[in-house]
Every structure is written in C-alpha cells, then in structure tokens.
Specification:
Shape: globular
Order of helices and strands: HHEEEEEEHEEHHHHHH
Largest sheet: 4 strands, antiparallel
Number of helices: 9
Number of strands: 8
Structural class: alpha+beta
Strand content: 15-25%
Radius of gyration: 18 Å
Strand order of the largest sheet: 1-8-3-6
Distance between the termini: 45 Å
Helix content: 40-55%
C-alpha cells in the first residue's frame, strides 16, 4: 500500500529516489476493518495519516451519545487530530473506518524531520493545511448561514462521491441536522 502513497506524493511533488526511500523508511501501513478505530477519544494522536484505501470518518460523541462527524476521509485524503498531534493532549475525537481501509502512518517527529529535509514536502503540507483551513471556514459559514435544505444541497454538490458511499444518517451528522430532517428534505426534493 505504500505504493499508493508514493504515487500520491510523486503526482504532487518531485522526489528523488533517496527522498522516497527516506519516507518509506519511517512509514508504516495499518489495516483497519470496517468499524475499527484508528483513534479513540482520550488517546493522544501521534501520527500524520494518509488513507491509501477505504474510507474513514472523524467524529465526536456528545453526552447524549449523539455522533457529530467533523470529516470524511476517503482514498487520497489525510486524517487525524491536529490539536492532539500539535499539543500532545488527549484527543476529543474518534476516527474509525466506514469501510475496510489501509492507512499510511508517519510519527510526528519523523514527519517533521522529513518536512525539514524535503522542502517540497513541507510546501505540499502547507498547501494542504491552507486548503483545510478554507474548507473549515466555509463549512462554519455554511453551518451558521444556510438552511438545512441548502446545507444538504451544498454537500451533494461538493461531495457527490462521498454522498454515494455513506449512509444518510452520517450525512445528516456531517451537515449538522437530524436524520429525520434529512429524510423530510429528501422526500420534499423527490416531490419536486
């Protein structure tokens, strides 16, 4: 599975054989079964994780046991808990596999060293972080300004491939509405 990660990297940046070997040396592949956790709330997250195959979700669970999905991570996406990674604090999040998955993990210290040694990798990471920030900013804006119907429509437009891979209750959780509200929205849309 490292080959999928290598292809992702070499499609985005130019790497020498030595640089690829340095990355491969510190990367480990973890296989996850459907519903298996990669991270559980309370654990400290210590990795940069890249999804080679499968599909993961990052979520929290409130006091009533209700799940709130922050991110979906299909193939070629990164996942993790930045807060726990950067501060070494126990995570408030969970990450589990929606499908059988394979993930490349690189420990934080090793990844930081790679970014120092390979400037183009550091630039790639900075670009990813900037895009992630913009996605989060737009999601917050949508959450506070759009109706439930508009949130669902925006989700379908922005993530059509994801919409076909996850159950409706997960989409509802991701866009911040109840499953019942989503069922009503879909019924009304079907009538139009």
């Amino acid at each position: 599975m490292f080959a999928a990660f290598q292809k992702y990297l070499t499609d985005k940046i130019e790497l020498s054989e030595e640089e690829i070997a340095a990355i491969a040396e510190v990367a480990t592949v973890k296989k996850l079964r459907k519903k298996q956790y990669l991270l559980q709330e309370g654990d400290v997250w210590k990795y940069n994780a890249f999804v080679c195959r499968g599909f993961l979700k990052t979520f929290s669970v409130n006091d009533n046991g209700m799940e709130h999905i922050l991110n979906f991570s299909p193939e070629s996406y990164w996942c993790g808990d930045r807060e726990s990674l950067m501060h070494g604090t126990p995570s408030r999040l969970n990450i589990d596999a929606i499908e059988d998955s394979e993930v490349v993990l690189i420990k934080k210290d090793d990844f930081d060293l790679l970014c120092q040694q390979i400037p183009q990798l550091n630039n790639l990471v900075n670009n990813i972080l900037q895009k992630s920030f913009l996605v989060s900013q737009n999601r917050i804006l949508a959450n506070i300004s759009l109706s439930a119907e508009e949130k669902y429509q925006e989700f379908l437009e922005k993530h059509p491939a994801i919409a076909n891979r996850v159950p409706q209750h997960m989409i509802a959780s991701y866009i911040g509405i109840t499953p019942e509200t989503l069922t009503r929205i879909r019924k009304n849309a079907a009538k139009k």
